[in-house]
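Need tokens for this chain, all 161 residues.
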Amino acid sequence: MLLAWLTTCTPTTQASCGFATKGTLQVATLLLIMWLWPAKRTLAQSSLLSSDGADLTSVESRELFRAHVAKLVPMCAEEREAVRLATVGQADNGVWLEERRGRITASLFKRAVRCRKPNSLLKEIFQYYSNNVLPKEDPRCYGKEMEPVAIRRYVETEESL
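Here are the structure tokens for all 161 residues:
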């Protein structure tokens, strides 16, 4: 029921829900759907979403969303557990990188909900950056770079106690 409302929501309804820009609710819905279900790439790779100027409230957009949602199959508990076990090690694990592609993650959720221009957000979600490298200014780069230093200092501190 909620999904039906989200995919048929009008700009007026969006404004009453606190969404300032046209199409934001559909983008947030799309991203949430991609996060929840594994069959996620066909919709976002569509030419419809290839630019920030795409009208996500158009009939074409809504039909594309509905067709995509109709094909989705939720992951069962066993599949989720298999993904969890296969992705231990996070960024050092190629499976982890592949499983993240096309899914909204906790680090991107706030951006997705407040999304005004979907293009850059979708590029990051689908990891269109060359060699899956984050942009230099991304704070996660600093975290990855400093993690070994932090671990070493923590171990040294614990050993000195």
